[in-house]
Amino acid sequence: IALNCMVKLAKGRPHLSQSVVETLLTQLHSAQDAARILMCHCLAAIAMQLPVLGDGMLGDLVELYKVIGRSATDKQQELLVSLATVIFVASQKALSAEVKAVIKQQLESVSNGWTVYRIARQASRMGNHDMARELYQSLLTQVASEHFYFWLNSLKEFSHAEQCLTGLQEENYSSALSCIAESLKFYHKGIASLT
């Protein structure tokens, strides 16, 4: 209830949102895993409404991600997904190579395939299609059936298509047409993988 109130407070009084986010980030380091998950949901909800997570805060989140990623309990797997979501929201569709490397490294060391899939889904939801594509690609070799392989391959191709569309520029029609054509190629590959 308190975290819902914080989201509503940040939405209703945007000038207080920075303080709310800083308070949550401070508490995030010392809280138990179950509380951290809820705090991450709260941070993501606030950040989706207002761009309040700056680069310095993103660095704190990435450092926390490194620390949390050292264990493989179920709660910490769920926390990795929640924290990755906040990182995706904070980065606003453009993850740096360093952040991508940290996320992938943590996922390779302790995560199961289901966690990687959930993080890839969140990356897609938040517009980080390049990251989603890379994560789906990494899962292709870990599945136990053809059905899952082709499903993940289609998601990888769809993410690649969406990534192509992010390069669209309204002023340049020839560039826009080439982006759309490239995107259609990957959508067709994804659909073919499903059939």
Walk me through this protein's architecture.
There is one protein chain. By secondary structure, the protein is mostly helical. 79% of the residues lie in helices and 0% in strands. The protein has helices spanning 2-12, 17-30, 33-49, 55-68, 74-91, 97-110, 113-125, 129-139, 146-165, 173-194. Helix 1 (2-12) runs parallel beside helix 3 (33-49) and helix 7 (113-125) packs antiparallel against helix 8 (129-139). The longest helix is centred in the last third of the chain and has 22 residues, at 173-194. Its main location: cytoplasm. Keywords: Cytoplasm, Nucleus.
H and E string: HHHHHHHHHH
Give the terminus-to-terminus CA distance: 45 Å
Give the count of structural domains.
Answer: 2
Shape: globular
Level of helix content?
over 70%
Q: How would you state the average pLDDT, rounded?
A: 84
Number of helices: 10
Summarize the structure in short.
The protein is mainly α. It contains ten helices and no strands. The mean pLDDT is 84.
Main traits of this protein?
10 helices; INTS7; nucleus; cytoplasm; TPR-like_helical_dom_sf
Topology:
Layout: H1 2-12, H2 17-30, H3 33-49, H4 55-68, H5 74-91, H6 97-110, H7 113-125, H8 129-139, H9 146-165, H10 173-194
Helix pairs in contact: 1-3, 2-3, 3-5, 4-5, 5-7, 7-8, 8-9, 9-10
